[in-house]
Design a protein that fits this description.
Number of strands: 15
CATH topology of the largest domain: Deoxyribonuclease I, Chain A
Oligomer: single chain
CATH architecture of the largest domain: 4-Layer Sandwich
Largest sheet: 7 strands, mixed
CATH class of the largest domain: Alpha Beta
Radius of gyration: 23 Å
Number of domains: 2
């Protein structure tokens, strides 16, 4: 429950929890509401279709919901079959509505702004996911881009990372790079995890720490605890923290522009862009093969018929595109 320190700051209780399905996780969430009255819930893996997202609003009447389903493409492709998967949802106490701005919602992460803090609820792909590293890096890149847009805000990122971020594999290294990356303006400099397991499977005799809270301002996080509820049918344990949030009103778009030095010219970072999406939406994919052929011909003879044909083909493709 939020406590006021003065007119401009509040201490919020935030809970991150992998539900492993709405119906399985609901009893635990209900107990958390009863015992702790969190101001912010960050749920992962609710497994709901778009038509059933309203369950959060119906069952948690003291909160308003903002999130997405990961089942949209499955629903659109026809009759559902197989097990459900994914989806993230953030609930914010109705008492904080006037301080809250909903920023962005995707099937793997949701961003809300409360006062001067960004709360990022994230669910990263688990081991065995197709193109896991690519998906992982794309999500990290997108979050970094949003954080850069709100440079006057502190950031709290919580959720299921599905990895040991102190590890040495490619996924763990990508998270470590994200944490220390200077392009974020404020480095994610602290990891609250206490090395206690957040995933405990008695059936498989396994335990690991894969749920984390990252923050850009360690002084704003006053408490962190891994909760062991009396009612929990899942392998994941909720993680809870108290965050001191400034509730001063601020015009984000104006403040970001005003803070930027007028004599600096910014440019796009292609290494940070979604290149696959760029080629897809600009219909430039057909050019890739043509340009490769032209370059190969160029290495042989710049005046060869093959090279000239490739150049003409490139020109024709650009005109038709």
């Amino acid at each position: 429950m939020a406590t006021d320190h003065n007119d401009s700051t509040r201490t919020l209780v935030a809970v991150s929890f992998n539900m492993h399905g709405y119906n399985q996780g609901f009893p635990t969430a209900e107990e958390l509401v009863k015992n702790f009255k969190p101001d912010v819930f960050m749920f992962q893996e609710h497994w709901l279709t778009p038509a059933n997202l309203c369950l959060f609003q119906k069952q948690f009447t003291d909160y308003f919901a903002f999130g997405s389903s990961a089942m949209s493409s499955s629903v659109a492709s026809g009759m559902l079959h197989g097990r459900p998967f994914g989806g993230v949802m953030t609930l914010i106490s109705n008492n904080l509505r006037k301080y809250t701005e909903t920023i962005y919602s995707d099937e793997r992460f949701v961003i809300v702004k409360i006062g001067r803090h960004l709360f990022v609820n994230v669910y990263f792909p688990c081991s065995g996911t197709v193109d896991r590293l690519v998906v992982y890096e794309n999500v990290l890149s997108d979050i970094a881009e949003w954080y850069d847009r709100y440079r006057d805000c502190e950031c709290v990122i919580a959720g299921d990372f599905n990895c040991d971020i102190d590890g040495s594999d490619a996924v763990s290294l990508s998270v470590q790079k994200f944490i220390r990356d200077g392009s974020l303006d404020a480095v994610m400099s602290y990891i609250f995890c206490q090395r206690q397991p957040t995933y405990v499977s008695e059936a498989l005799n396994q335990a690991s720490c894969i749920d984390y809270v990252l923050t850009s301002a360690t002084c704003d996080v006053k408490k962190f605890v891994i909760v062991d509820p009396n009612i929990n049918f899942l392998d994941h344990l909720p993680i809870m923290c108290e965050v001191v949030v400034s509730t001063c009103s601020v015009n984000v778009s104006n403040s970001v522009e005003n803070d930027r030095p007028k004599n600096i010219q910014y440019q796009l970072r292609w290494d940070k862009a979604n290149q696959a999406g760029y080629y897809h939406y600009t219909h430039l994919s057909p050019l890739i093969t043509v340009v490769d052929d032209a370059l190969q011909a160029c290495t042989v003879d710049t005046m060869s018929d093959a090279f000239i044909d490739c150049i003409e083909q490139v020109y024709g493709t650009i005109v038709s595109t």
